[in-house]
Prior knowledge:
The protein has an 8-stranded mixed sheet. It has a 6-stranded parallel sheet with strand order 13-12-11-14-15-16, with helices on both faces. It is α/β, with parallel strands linked by helices. The protein contains 19 helices and 16 strands. It binds uridine-5'-diphosphate-glucose. Uridine-5'-diphosphate-glucose (UPG) binds next to α1, α14 and α15.
Amino acid sequence: MVEDVRSSPAAAEPHFLIVTYPAQGHINPARHLARRLLRATGARVTISTAVSAFRKMFPEAAVAGAGDDENAGEEAGHRDAAGVWYVPYSDGYDAGFDRAVHDHTHYLTQVKLVGSRTLSGVLTCLAAAGKPVTLVVYTLLLSWVAGVASSHGVPAALYWIQPASVLAAYLHFFRGTGGLDKAVAAASSDPMAVVEVPGLPSPVRIRDLPSFIVSTSGDDPYAFVSDMFRELVDMLGRDDSPSVLANTFDAMEPDAVASLREHGVDLVPVGPVLSFLDDAPAKNAVAGNNDLFRNDGNGYLDWLDTQAPASVVYISFGSLSMMSKRQIEEVAMAMSESGRQFLWVLREDNRRSEGGGADIAGGERGMVVEWCDQVRVLSHPSVACFVTHCGWNSTLESVACGVPVVGVPQWTDQGTNAWLVERLGTGVRVTVGDKEDGGVVDAGELRRCIDFATSEMVRAKATLWREKARAAAAEGGSSEKNLRAFVSKQLAGGI
Ligand SMILES: O=c1ccn([C@@H]2O[C@H](COP(=O)(O)OP(=O)(O)O[C@H]3O[C@H](CO)[C@@H](O)[C@H](O)[C@H]3O)[C@@H](O)[C@H]2O)c(=O)[nH]1
């Protein structure tokens, strides 16, 4: 581990500030990185996310932060049980952003406008409290944070919370390396068409690319997100490019890592960044504590305890994805016909969504919950496989727990993540029905994929990759060494 930086009285006390977008899939890897930095360096680590998310995570805490002089004392911010500090910024939506009501493009414009000002206030406030920030680390969709840090004379690094293969796809697409932009434009209507992505092992199909690359039509409500990734890639091409800490590990994506480095990206694989690899959660810890969603207690863990080893199908589509009513019914039918036990996370917003509204109960063989402590579920010996939308956090967690995957990717990086899972051999991607049919995966296909994912061959691969993932994160492993070298470099640079 890195020498405890507090033992060097001459240096200004290092203070890492991790700024994150207020979504569960962004906050989780930020919290894990915060804990790893704290453990590795002993330095102060603060997370800044939007006020609305902070309030959900810590309902009992006062909102301390942006320019609030009353809090500019020794105890500026809120400290969690792991010792990580929190000081929120305002994104202009302190009461929360509701996807059903608010416009996403407007939201992202506001985050940049209001967030730039209020995050600057956070940096000022922390300096006034005698805790000046020495390095800012920021997650996706927040490229403007680098400018705020720079205006305070503080260096910044990007924390890439998706696979290196996704970053490589964006980089080569927006730079037009090897004509990738043209190849995608020519083939984009055929999801099964093969394209050459420099540095990525073939075959890569159109459906395997990040959706923001492929869906460039004018009526795509998320076309603006593509522009944000283009901006990010442009920033990586400059002399003053930030280092990129990536939540992956060398052995998992060697080609993508090499390709990014060859094209000038200072990529530092530090993953899998998952706190449970460092400290197992206490047996009686409240599941989902400090998440943006609340679960109804730990009953499902007790239920898992009563199930046979490797018998339960765990189903979850993350914190954002919505399932249509038909898709929900197909999953329920697959479970009913398969005769398997299952634990299914079906968020409340998903149940009551337009086209949703399916009233699903577990019956004798299953449990349906609003939210769970996923890592504890995946670590449970009774879980046989994971039916997932392939969010990157869920994918990494499945790999680190050695649980085979049935991938049902929907958008953004998820298609690439599912491609990677198939390359590792730790799971299988479903074949989706016609677009005209709503792109639904039918019950028969789900059952076929579950049977395959629970085969001896896939289970053996999952076990193999579990060991590789843990070895990378362990003391002396590639990611642990990379993080140590990165921190040492920052310390030598003055923090
Ligand atoms: O009941 C649940 C369900 C999920 N989780 C956790 O919530 C996180 C979900 O993250 P992820 O699997 O990445 O899914 P999303 O929430 O959908 O994440 C968004 O952000 C990710 C990082 O950018 C992308 O990879 C995804 O595609 C994008 O949808 C994971 O850590 C899970 O362990 C729980 O703790 N309990």
